[in-house]
Design goal:
Elements (H helix, E strand, L loop, with lengths): L2 E12 L2 E12 L3 E5 L6 H8 L7 E6 L2 E3 L4 H6 L2 E4 L11 H5 L6 E2 L2 E2 L1 H15 L14 H14 L4 E5 L7 H16 L3 E5 L3 H7 L2 E6 L2 E7 L5 H9 L17 E11 L5 E11 L2 E6 L6 H9 L6 E6 L2 E2 L5 H7 L1 E4 L3 H5 L6 H6 L9 E2 L2 E2 L1 H14 L16 H12 L6 E5 L7 H16 L3 E5 L3 H7 L2 E6 L2 E7 L5 H8 L4 H6 L3
Parallel strand pairs: 3-10, 3-11, 6-9, 9-10, 15-22, 15-23, 18-21, 21-22
Antiparallel strand pairs: 1-2, 1-4, 4-5, 7-8, 11-12, 13-14, 13-16, 16-17, 19-20, 23-24
């Protein structure tokens, strides 16, 4: 067997915490190899060992049949490895080409040769089907294009094996399919791809081989062909997981959140919300479906007080909140799980305990006479760590030490226990593994049954079908139509997501 990468007996400990224990991984040259497992299973740590970001406590690495000690990412790159991280590392003010060659600039007479960098970027992008404009500023581009730039950075450094950590966590379904086309092109050219994922349909669609980790140990390596989603779930979690629509109780109550004739502009001062009208009742989950970039972000920002609408009215519990500050809106009864957990959900340098305290540090029982009751806060943090199954060494661990899915659980633990009558929940399971998705869905349904009004924004139609009572479909800042959650038809909803009015979309069904 012609192996590009072989890890043998890799063990990595962080204090008393064992992230990897005797893990073996064999990846054939030219294959697409998926590594899956729950959050905390050791997937990212194993890839960090391979890329030289951390050093193993035991075990060995072989590349192309030769044993290697990879002491740093620089040595990994020299050995032909490239890694695209889950959270991108781009400079928004620079062009695409300048980002691709950042740190290895092409110079002529002592100055950066921007034209040559652009030429080589264009050449690489055309060879591998990564469509980009080398002269465009990165800060103006979509997340999907940013990921292409990260891949181009890896290719420009001569990678023969590309490692991708949760590559579709921030992509739309359309962008994910385009990424898979690119990865198949890599494989056809003899390159090797290792990717970490929790989206099992994607694993089954694009990978040749799948390795499953659980609790830091190797469980199985199998050819993907012939495996079912249920097979993968059992290997990952050790049990069956519920993907079905969740049962629900009583009919919705009184209106809690009302938006009328709502307009707002995006960062370029162009209309991003166009005459949006919606109502969310107590004990109801209203879903927002749509391809990312069609006004969902601006809608969430307006409702949370992060953006002032151009026109229109928003009422929360009967009180006008449009244009109010985020603190005022939260005080009126809003809890917010933001779509970008790192930018707006947490302080990465603070502990889990501190992050769970945020927003209620001045309220009883967490504070008394202006002083925070840290013992009480610590007890609450430990309780929520157990309830939300946050995988961490301790409540004092900084959030930056957690996986993406566990960071999401910290945000959910804080916001879902505020007691707020209205929950604004944006992409709740982005970057979260299968077992944790089920638990998060259970928590959302529990909030509904407790009478909360919930606006659920998600790019995953199956998530909306499982949870929402009603689903509003957005395109280009407008509501294109509304469907009942139990009657969701992916074909007609998909047409509405491309701008086809509801009547026409439903009439187009076979």
């Amino acid at each position: 067997m012609d192996l590009a990468v072989e890890l043998v007996g890799i063990t990595k400990r962080f204090g008393a915490f064992v992230a990897n224990e005797g893990v073996d991984l064999a990846v054939r040259r030219g294959e697409i190899h998926a590594v899956i497992g729950e959050n905390g299973a050791g997937k990212t740590t194993l890839m960090n060992v391979l890329f030289g970001l951390v050093q193993p406590d035991a075990g060995s690495i072989r590349l192309d049949g030769r044993e290697r000690v990879i002491a740093s990412p620089a040595e990994a790159i020299e050995a032909g490895l490239g890694m695209v991280h889950q959270h991108f590392k781009l400079v928004p003010s620079l062009t695409v080409a300048d980002n691709v060659f950042l740190g290895m600039e092409i110079r002529r007479r002592g100055l950066i040769d921007h034209a040559e960098q652009a030429r080589r970027t264009r050449e690489l992008s055309e060879r591998f089907g990564l469509k980009v404009d080398p002269d465009e500023r990165v800060g103006l581009l979509s997340v999907g294009i940013e990921q292409r730039i990260e891949i181009l950075k890896v290719l420009a450094r001569g990678a023969r094996t590309v490692i991708l950590d949760e590559p579709t966590a921030v992509l739309t379904p359309q962008e994910s399919r385009e990424l898979f086309r690119i990865l198949r092109g890599f494989s056809a050219e003899g390159m090797t791809v290792i990717f970490i994922s929790h989206h099992l349909e994607e694993v089954m669609e694009v990978s040749d081989t799948v390795t499953v980790l659980r609790a830091g140990r190797h469980v199985a390596t199998r050819p993907t062909a012939g495996l079912s989603r249920e097979d993968l779930v059992r290997m990952m979690v050790g049990r069956a997981v519920n993907f079905a629509r969740r049962p629900r109780g009583a009919r919705p109550g009184a209106p809690v959140l009302e938006a009328k004739a709502l307009w707002a502009r995006d960062a370029r001062r162009l209309p991003a919300l166009k005459d949006v009208n919606l109502t969310v009742h107590a004990g109801e989950i209203v879903g927002i479906a749509g391809v990312a970039g069609n006004g969902q972000t601006e809608l969430a920002e307006v409702l949370a007080g992060l953006k002032v609408p151009s026109h229109g009215e928003v009422r929360l519990g009967g009180a006008a909140i449009a244009g109010r500050s985020p603190a005022e809106i939260r005080a009126r009864g809003l809890a917010h799980v933001p779509g970008d957990r790192l930018a707006r959900g947490v302080d990465r340098n603070a502990s889990i305990t501190t992050n769970i305290l945020m927003g209620r540090q001045n309220a009883a029982p967490w504070s008394r006479n202006g002083l925070i009751r840290w013992k009480k806060v610590a007890e609450e943090a430990e309780t929520l760590i157990r309830r939300f199954d946050i995988r961490a060494r301790s409540a004092a661990s900084p959030v930056r030490s957690l996986s993406g899915g566990n960071i999401q659980k910290v945000v959910l633990a804080r916001e879902f226990t505020q007691g707020a009558p209205f929950l604004l929940v944006d992409q709740p399971t982005r970057g979260v593994d299968i077992g944790a998705q089920e638990a998060i869905h259970d928590e959302i349904m529990a909030q509904r049954e407790a009478g909360r009004a919930i606006l659920l924004i998600s790019v995953q139609l199956d998530e909306l079908a499982a949870l929402a009572d009603r689903i509003l479909v957005m395109f280009d800042g407008r509501i294109m139509g509304e469907v009942a959650g139990e009657a969701l038809d992916e074909e007609s909803v998909g047409l509405m997501m491309t701008g086809v009015p509801q009547a026409a979309a439903e009439g187009a069904r076979p």
